[in-house]
Amino acid sequence: MTDIDFKSFKAQPLDYKNQRNQRLYRLLFGWMTVLLILPVLIILVLLTAKGAPALSWEFFTADPINGMTEGGIFPCLIGTIWIVAVALFASVPLGVACAVYLSEYAPDNTLTRLINLAIINLAGVPSIVHALFGVGAFVMFFDLGTSILAAGLTLAVMTMPVVIVSTRESLQAVPQAFREACWSLGATRSQTIRKVVIPNSVTGILTGVILEVSRTVGETAPIMFTGAALFLPFVPDNFFERLSSQTMAMSLHLFTVSTQVPNVPEELPFGVALVLIGMVLVLNSVSIAFRMYLRGQKKW
Amino acid sequence: MWRVALVETTMPAIRTKGLNLWYGDFQALFDVDIDVKAGKVTSLIGPSGCGKSTYLRAVNRINERLGYVRTTGTIEVMGQNVLADEVELTQLRREVGMVFQRPNPLPLPVRDNVLFAYRLHRGGKGPREEEDQVVEEALREVLLWDKVKDRLDQTATELSLEEQQKLCIARLLPVKPSVLLMDEPCSALDPEATKAVEELIWRLRGDYSILIVTHNMAQARRASDECIFMLMGKVVEHSRTGDMFVSPQQQETADYIEGRYG
Ligand SMILES: Nc1ncnc2c1ncn2[C@@H]1O[C@H](COP(=O)(O)OP(=O)(O)OP(=O)(O)O)[C@@H](O)[C@H]1O
Ligand SMILES: [Mg+2]
User: Fold this and answer.
1) Going by DSSP bridges, is the β-strand pair B69-77/B80-81 parallel, antiparallel, or unpaired?
2) Closest CA to B171 of B215, B217, B109
3) Which CATH number fits domain A55-296: 1.10.357.10, 3.40.50.1820, 1.10.3720.10, 2.70.70.10?
4) Residue B262 lies in a domain
5) CB contact under 8 A, B106 and A196
6) I want to staple A75 with a disulfide (CB 3.0 to 4.6 A). Which of A16, A65, A248, B260 is the partner?
7) Cα–Cα distance between B41 and B229 in angstroms, integer?
8) What is the block-wise mean pLDDT of chain B (262 residues), using blocks of 10 residues?
9) How many structural domains comprise chain B?
10) Containing domain of residue B150, as a range?
């Protein structure tokens, strides 16, 4: 009798049990995902609802006034862009060069493995420790003072390990067969890197790098002691003076207006937070756009 | 032309004496003595892991990139010791071209693939007409010109596998190598493509000395002048292909070609 059921492909008791399990697991994992995403959504919605009224053209272009209870965030916006730009220009060339060395040149020995381990550990160092390192190294030892330069370099040191790791991953995604093809045709290591390895990983490298740098936009601790000022609407025009001066920054400004200044209208801190998140989102979208472009370009 | 004269001399294209090779502590080749005749196709057969690829990769010294490979003995290519200190690897690889098991054209246009080694050894791009001529000549030689002449700007990795493998052979030719090493060049191809590539290899015979690794007995038999049988890192037998398949001298060889090793 069961034989006949089986031959007609009808579900058997065991199948019913499997189906029940299936439904159970789908529900379980589905709800976990919802649970995880919900807070993020709530934050975004709240931020937008409460912060949107603060946004206006003036908000982006004016200085804060009246003890930072009114006016805009212009100097903070510019300051953050400067600091992140310094961090980008310092960490990307160095980090990429280091990754190229580790991935393409370094022999596979104990020393290399130690270096790799150190880099991974470095990526886990808390940002406050980087901040203190920045004070000791850039502000005091190299005598840069508390300045955009010192703050940017501190952020650079902080992001360097992740830049190295993500770059190395992109480099290693280039098939070994391409390298062997190159070598067997008489290319040197550097020719191979220039003509084949980098061109085939550059989008991946950029994606990773932008993603990592976008995380530094919101960092507060590393810039707090090295270059960010609570209130400094005046900014020098000269490039070098600008680099060696302190600056206001979005993240610190958010901290200031939400906790340090009395009588701030409620929408102001939310507005600042909204813009901060917006900056990160813009950078991430660039990175995602790159990744999509990369998928379309995949050549192997 | 000197290439023609060379066929008549007795100088081997590749000669190794007492070649031992270690990957770290693991010895992959044991006292390998091989003379590969110039202008002929020599096939290298043997069970998986017996060191065929290792031997090939020792000759153009591409193994060294691994960092933990150690070699003793001598390897000569066209009478020159390739292990000597003054040997420049780029020059060696110009003389000794290599074709891999999986076709590995670079993700560049077909044209740039053919010109890759040519430009490397020239130190940059050449005049347009000269390059065009080089491309046409190389692609004609591998019977690919008519198929791809309208697609020279297409990325090479989009070609069919057969076309890719022919392209991989074509890109060696502009720098005029004398030896071609081929590591199972047909094993990723279907029977039709295999036949086409085999015919191509046979066509190149005479102009180039070809050492080809294969797992395909029929292929070794069809498309080679001489045959070398290796087992566990040692050469067991080296003779004319006809002789080896008709009357193998060693019991192991007989077992292998009759399929008793797998
Ligand atoms: N990079 C390497 N590191 C360590 N051992 C290796 C390496 N490459 C090959 N070997 C070892 O050397 C031996 C010979 O390998 P080789 O690749 O030359 O064999 P083969 O005859 O080409 O086999 P196949 O027919 O499977 O290609 C094998 O035992 C293999 O495990
Ligand atoms: Mg092999």
Assistant:
1) antiparallel
2) B109
3) 1.10.3720.10
4) no
5) yes
6) A248
7) 14
8) 50 91 92 91 92 93 86 91 89 92 91 92 88 91 88 90 91 91 89 87 90 89 90 91 87 82 56
9) 1
10) 14-257
Q: Cα(A128)–Cα(B88) distance, rounded to whole angstroms?
A: 51
Rounded to whole angstroms, how far apart are CA atoms A260 and A240? 31
CB-defined site of ligand 1, < 6 Å: B 23, 26, 28, 46, 48-54, 66
**B6 located within any domain:** no
ipTM of the complex: 0.85
Q: What is the pTM of this model?
A: 0.81
* B161 shares contact with chain A (CB less than 8 Å): no
Contact at CB, B121 and A299, closer than 8 angstroms = no
Q: Return the residue matching tokens 């070598």.
A: A183
Q: Where are the domains of chain A?
A: 10-52, 55-296
Query: How far from each other are the two terminal CA atoms of chain B, in whole angstroms?
Result: 44
Helix (H) or strand (E) holding B104: none
Task: Please tell me the residue having the least CA distance from ligand 1 atom 4.
Answer: B23
For residue A277, what are its two tokens? 């998140």
Nearest CA to ligand 1 atom 9: B54
How far B117 CA lies from chain A's nearest CA (Å)? 5
Is position B4 within any domain? no
Look-up of token digits 């740039």: B112
Q: Is A1 part of the contact surface with chain B (CB cutoff 8 Å)?
A: no
Q: Which of B26, B65, B187 has most ligand 1 atoms within 8 Å of CB, for mutation?
A: B26
